DUF1648 domain-containing protein
Amino acid sequence: MGNYIVKHYNFFIKVNWILSVVTAVANIFLYTKLPQIVGNHFNMLGIPDSSGGKAIIWAFPLIFLVCAFLFNEAYIDKLSLGWIKNKKIMKICILGVQIILWIAILSPYIYYFSII
């Protein structure tokens, strides 16, 4: 499993670029249709437990872009972190963080599309 992740690491990072574009396009559609106040933090059941202005949806594509830059393989390989000797383990950990971010950022879109 670990070798598969390392071999296909760039594919997983490209998903950030794709998600950035997809969420930006979704935002163009959603922004005019959403109410001024929307949920901006959700509990484990996907129910909003905090609210704020609808402009928060523009942060999601930006987060994907930042992750695409920070987690790209060329940058990771040049990183000289003395406490991390094994780049394979680092890439697997980064992918774990990515999956958590994908779920955390994409799940609010289910809510946003349900309220329009």
